[in-house]
Amino acid sequence: MDADSLLELTDYCYRKIVYLNTQGAEDAKYKERSGRAIQDMTPQEDLQEKTSGTEFGIAICSISVLRYLTDFMGDLPLSVMARMLDCHDILMALIPLVENPPWQRKRTRSGKPITEKYAEGKWTEVQASDRFKLTKTDAQLWLCIYNLIVDKRCRLKYTYDDFRRSTVLKLRKYLNDLLTDQLPVLKDLKWAVEQLVIQVPQTTAESASGRLIIEQVPELREKLMTGKNWRVIAEKQLKSAFSEASSATLRQAQEMLKLFQFGELMEQPTCAACKKAAVQRCSRCKSEWYCGRECQVSVWKAHKNACDILAGKVEKCGAGNADIKLDSSYYS
């Protein structure tokens, strides 16, 4: 990936981290519904709920992407590191997720409180004995924080003022033996955090002195977002492309129907009853072929239900008069 794409990816991951800190817990909240309530949900409500679930899952994946970006910080362009540390201050956005992870929730089942964690794209109940066991998302988060604090390049670039120092020191109560036994590499993180206790925080003037700041501006998203009213575009698409009454949609359906009919002319149709050569088909559904009326009547009871369904679809798309009758001499 080039520098511009990596910069866009970093911005995207940051937006998802912000979403997890603000809206993630609300979207992850368990919604207790009865069977009747589920049946009474409108299509819009169902779509909105599925959209929220999808966005939450994507945001969880963004933590893994961010972890891999920090793993290869030395191989990435300097603009990516500057974007993470100076522009977005991603470390300060990640630490609140340690305190309140939205991928963990509590709810009741049959009056009994249970704990669930989001892993492998679904919510799974966690037994009391596994309550402190790290999930993949927990591990990715901790490794990302580890890279941003312990990595030598990040330490040289990142400066700690009073706010940043006090925020990072909150990690001390989580860096216990139970955690470091599961991720031994976090012992170095624990040592680095302890060093901040005796370190004197720098002032804003000291941190900014002697630094040349050149910020690369991402262009892809700006070009997509600038000069376009996406709400107006969406409303227009809803009326034109997704409207059942759209004349353009009906014309397209009719053209597709003609293509299928043309394909039927390429080979001899057979009677649905006797399997002999057929010369005409059902005038309602346009799907079954017969050699004559006797065969059509003989299988009508079996064909009736399917015919009612298919006939409704044909009439809806405006192709009710597109019948084809074949002359048997055509195939001779």
Overall description:
The protein has 332 residues and is mostly helical. It has two domains: 3-225, no CATH class; 248-331, no CATH class. The chain has helices at residues 3-28, 35-39, 43-71, 78-87, 90-99, 136-150, 152-157, 162-168, 177-182, 186-198, 204-208, 220-225, 230-240, 247-264, 293-298, 300-316, and strands at 104-109, 112-119, 122-126, 280-281, 289-290. Strand 2 (112-119) and strand 3 (122-126) form a beta hairpin. The radius of gyration is 31 Å and the shape is elongated. Keywords: Metal-binding, Zinc, Zinc-finger. Pfam families: zf-MYND (PF01753). One of its GO terms (cellular component) is cytoplasm.
Write a brief caption for the model.
By secondary structure, the protein is mainly α.
Question: How are the SSEs ordered, and which strands pair?
Answer:
Elements (H helix, E strand, L loop, with lengths): L2 H26 L6 H5 L3 H29 L6 H10 L2 H10 L4 E6 L2 E8 L2 E5 L9 H15 L1 H6 L4 H7 L8 H6 L3 H13 L5 H5 L11 H6 L4 H11 L6 H18 L15 E2 L7 E2 L2 H6 L1 H17 L16
Antiparallel strand pairs: 1-2, 2-3, 4-5
Helix pairs in contact: 1-3, 1-4, 1-5, 3-6, 5-6, 6-10
Keywords: Metal-binding, Zinc, Zinc-finger
InterPro entries: ZMYND10 (IPR052298), Znf_MYND (IPR002893)
Organism: Ceratodon purpureus
Shape: elongated
Number of strands: 5
Structural class, from helix and strand content? mainly alpha
Mean pLDDT: 79
Q: How many discrete structural domains? A: 2
Number of helical stretches of at least 4 residues: 16
Report the β-strand fraction as a percent range: 5-15%
